[in-house]
Amino acid sequence: MTEEFEPLPDNAIVYRALLRKQWVDWETGEIKFQAYLLRQNEQSLSVNIASACTPGQCAARFRNCYGVASLQVGRIRELGLNVVPDSISHANIIGLPNMEENPATARRLADLLAKQSQLEWRP
């Protein structure tokens, strides 16, 4: 991960593209914890920086996007994680364990991220 981009302030907003239909409870609009689990061989979770794109623009980057959730960077950091930009419009949430190495912590952190997130866009 590169350090050439300015760290994001705590009040910055990032968007998580919801690329699977089952990541959202469509009756309540709540984001499910599965949206914040690392997939096998992933080291971080991809997010877009809200100051660089709208929720709709974030969704348009993907062939299939079922929603876009927003999170505040400072609240992510309160969980002991960090958000590190790797371009002017993209960042990675780092510090999450994957399900293989630490399932209980991975599930707990994913659940806390899901509870913090808000659905900003849906198709």
Topology:
Elements: E1 13-18, E2 24-25, E3 30-31, E4 44-49, H1 55-60, E5 67-72, H2 73-77, E6 82-85, E7 90-94, H3 103-116, E8 118-121
Antiparallel strand pairs: 1-4, 1-5, 2-3, 4-7, 5-8, 6-7
C-alpha geometry: globular
The second-level CATH architecture is Alpha-Beta Barrel
The CATH class label is Alpha Beta
Number of E-state strands: 8
CATH topology group: ADP-ribosylation fold
Question: What characterizes the major β-sheet?
Answer: 6 strands, antiparallel
> Roughly what is the average pLDDT, rounded to an integer?
95
Record keyword descriptors for this entry.
alpha+beta; 3 helices; single chain; globular
Commentary on this structure:
- The chain has three helices and eight strands; from the N terminus they run E-E-E-E-H-E-H-E-E-H-E.
- It is of the alpha+beta class.
- Strands 6-7-4-1-5-8 form a six-stranded antiparallel beta sheet. Strands 2-3 form a two-stranded antiparallel ribbon.
- A hairpin with a 4-residue loop joins strand 6 and strand 7.
- The longest helix is centred in the last third of the chain and has 14 residues.
Summarize the structure.
This protein has 123 residues and is an alpha+beta fold.
